[in-house]
């Protein structure tokens, strides 16, 4: 008996090829071999640890947040600890990127010769008082004497008869280092032992805001309506005056890597220095290094 003939249908070769390419592309994309792109943003999943200066903290936190939004799957962990911690943690390899609000010291460069610094913003250190304090202008000499403990009453600088509460940052703080180099180093004075020590810009601001007779110094990026920045020798701590060099206490903010940055570190640093990253620098009240 003759077997019935079974008809076979074949897909056109073009359709087969299209389906095959689609399957391969989906597999590669899922494996991470092909970067997905959305609205011109290249996704780059990675994990980074960043720590150090509390001045740089707002920049690092906001840049990390936006970078992770642009690159789903990435995890960037940001913490403070101070500039000295940032330098040492980068050198030890306990973080990928260390943050510092001061230049590296000669001793640090000698101990950690492989560290590489990356300038990401400019900043000024503002002298701040309580909003109800009538003092609006101090000379460099008056600030030197207040922090050295030689002037202890507001009456001696034109204010009311009240003892001055001196607030300072801790040893190792980049903000303190900048203040000491600009204000106290020329007179070879040291900060008075009677100063109240705080370990962050935020705590300094809270302390000054809570006492009418307090004086402190902190990053320009932390100045808000809770406190008031005074003029220094008639010059206000503004972005324009810091850029021009007219304001006496200014500095560069740094991110630090151990050796040249690897691909992941460079991806984040590149974002911080990009147009979008530098706009974030401005939004959190610091000064971009590039426009």
Describe this structure in words.
With 291 residues, the protein is an alpha/beta fold. It folds into two domains: 110 residues, D-Maltodextrin-Binding Protein, domain 2, CATH 3.40.190.10; 127 residues, Periplasmic binding protein-like II (D-Maltodextrin-Binding Protein, domain 2, 3-Layer(aba) Sandwich), CATH 3.40.190. It is built from ten helices and 13 strands. The strands form three sheets. Strands 3, 4, 5, 6, 8, 9, 10, 11 and 13 form a nine-stranded mixed β-sheet that branches. It has a two-stranded antiparallel ribbon with strand order 1-2. Strands 7-12 form a two-stranded parallel ribbon. β3, α2 and β4 form a beta-alpha-beta unit. The N terminus is likely disordered.
Percentage of residues in helical conformation: 25-40%
| Number of separate strands | 13
Low-confidence stretches: 1-12, 14-41
Which fold name fills CATH's third level, the topology of the largest domain? Answer: D-Maltodextrin-Binding Protein, domain 2
Give the overall form.
elongated
The CATH class assignment of the largest domain is Alpha Beta
Secondary-structure class: alpha/beta
Number of domains: 2
How many DSSP helices? 10
CATH superfamily of the largest domain: Periplasmic binding protein-like II
Distance between the termini: 88 Å
Query: Major beta sheet, specifics?
Result: 9 strands, mixed
- What's the SSE pattern? HEEEHEHEHEEHEHEHEEEHEHH
**What integer is the average pLDDT?**
88
